[in-house]
Amino acid sequence: MSFAQKLAKFLADLAARLLPANRHAWGEAMRQEVRAIESAPDALAFAGGCLWAALCERITVMKAIVFTGRLVVGLVTALYGVMFLVMMVNGLTGQAVQPVQPWIVVWVAAMGFSDLAAAAGLVFWKPKLFWTAFVLAALPSLGLTVFGLATRSDMFLRFAWPFVPLALLAGAALFLAWLERGSRRPIAA
User: Fold this and answer.
1) What is the pLDDT of residues 70-98, one digit of tens each?
2) Would you say the C-alpha torsion 148, 93, 112, 66 has a positive or negative sign?
3) Are 81 and 119 in contact, with CB atoms under 8 Å apart?
4) Suppose 130 and one of 76, 121, 125, 140 were both cysteines; which one would form an S-S bond, judging by CB atoms 3.0 to 4.6 Å apart?
5) 151 vs 156: CA distance, rounded Å
6) Is 185 left (phi over 0), alpha (psi -120 to 50) or beta?
7) How far is CA 22 from CA 17, 28, 52, 148, in A?
8) d(CA 22, CA 128)
9) Region at 94 (left for phi over 0; alpha for psi -120 to 50; beta for the rest)
10) Phi, psi of 186 (to 5 degrees)
11) 156 near 143, Cβ under 8 Å?
């Protein structure tokens, strides 16, 4: 058996493993066909086509779009969380203009770590982690906003601004989840 035939056999095996479970019969047919072809260049060309078909079957257009969307939104969310953590460090090291209250440090830390966890949950799409982190990011701001409304304190009402990016994050997560459930058309169709 020549190197090209071994490579063709390897590519056909790889293609069969890449195929979704409902295409198992296709994978077996690919393997048998590559073994039956006597010409090494023909076997290699056929195995290359099998690998391309398997990749097209596995990777859909929508999966590529959803993955890219999750990656971009996750990166922005992670940067947002890092911004909060930098603000926390600046407050703790005395780099702030005014002395920082301990409850503000706790709020900023909760926002920063929750946003980082939400970014990880979004990129790797762990819905339970994402929504738990999302709620943990929203609760401190919600508590401070409600307290500000109850006491009519302008200082506490300033903590309502994180709801805008949090609402955008929730909307993006729901939209990407909806897209993922959508069309399953292969890339090369």
Assistant:
1) 999 999 999 998 998 888 887 677 666 67
2) positive
3) yes
4) 121
5) 9
6) beta
7) 12, 12, 17, 56
8) 28
9) left
10) -65, 160
11) no
The rounded percent of the chain whose pLDDT value lies above 90 is 30
Which residues touch 98 (CB under 8 Å, ≥6 apart)?
none
pLDDT band at 189; cut points 50, 70, 90:
very low
CA separation for the pair 61, 56 (Å, rounded): 9
Please report the pLDDT score of residue 49 as a whole number.
Answer: 93
**Average pLDDT taken over every residue of the chain:** 83
Domain ranges of the chain: 3-58, 61-180
Burial track 41-80 (b if 16+ CB lie within 10 A, e otherwise): eebbebbeebbebbbebeebebeeebeebbeebbebbbeb
Give the count of alpha carbons within 13 A of 57, CB side only.
Answer: 18
Contact 47, 34 (CB under 8 A): yes
Contact 177, 131 (CB under 8 A): no
